[in-house]
Amino acid sequence: MDDCIFCKIASHVIESDYVYEDDRVCAFRDLSPLAPTHVLVIPKHHYETMVDGVASEDLVAMTHAVEEVVKSEGIAETGFRVVTNGGADAGQAVHHLHWHVLGGRRLTDDFA
Ligand code: AMP
């Protein structure tokens, strides 16, 4: 996807503040953090949302990345939240599947 910002981050065409990477996924800090830890976990393959035929290998890799991130950020024990927005009603702004990983403070009942 030539015009997808997260594809460019995944392929290092645009560099970001990466906190985890393997052959299937990468995780990097959100530009506008809503919590002390606000990391985005994305598959390197372009999917628009969770209902875009995501390969099970990519789901496993994303789950593993969440585990690595919350451990390295020191929030595995204190608590964390994983959120994904799919489509207009959810306010999805970037149309490349991403999981927000939030933590480091008491999270409210809203999105963050
Ligand atoms: P969503 O509304 O779920 O699509 O969220 C998109 C998220 O991507 C927002 O939290 C943005 O702050 C974040 N974001 C957009 N562009 C970048 C970027 N270049 N690097 C890091 N985070 C970004």
Spans with pLDDT under 50 lasting ≥5 residues?
A: none
From the N-terminal CA to the C-terminal CA, the straight-line distance is: 29 Å
pLDDT averaged over residues: 96
Number of discrete helical segments = 2
Indicate the radius of gyration in whole angstroms.
13 Å
What pattern of helices and strands is seen along the backbone?
Answer: HEEEHEE
Name the CATH superfamily assignment.
HIT-like
Give the overall shape.
globular
Strand content: 15-25%
The distinct bound ligands, ions and cofactors come out as: adenosine monophosphate
Number of strands: 5
What is the multimeric organization of the chains shown? single chain
Provide the fold topology:
Layout: H1 5-10, E1 18-21, E2 25-29, E3 37-43, H2 56-72, E4 80-83, E5 99-103
Antiparallel strand pairs: 1-2, 2-3, 3-5, 4-5
Adenosine monophosphate is lined by residues 5, 16, 30-32, 40, 85, 91-94.
Key structural traits:
binds adenosine monophosphate; 112 residues; HIT family, subunit A; 22% strand; alpha+beta
Summarize the structure.
This protein is α+β, with helices and mostly antiparallel strands and 112 residues long. The chain has helices spanning 5-10, 56-72, and strands at 18-21, 25-29, 37-43, 80-83, 99-103.
Provide an overview of this structure.
This protein has a single domain (5-103), classed as HIT-like (HIT family, subunit A). The protein has a five-stranded antiparallel β-sheet with strand order 1-2-3-5-4, covered by helices on one side. β2 (25-29) and β3 form a beta hairpin. The mean pLDDT is 96. Helices cover 21% and strands 22% of the residues. It has helices at 5-10, 56-72, and strands at 18-21, 25-29, 37-43, 80-83, 99-103. The longest helix has 17 residues, at 56-72. The chain is α+β, with helices and mostly antiparallel strands. The structure holds adenosine monophosphate. The site of adenosine monophosphate has 11 residues, from loops. Adenosine monophosphate (AMP) binds next to loops.
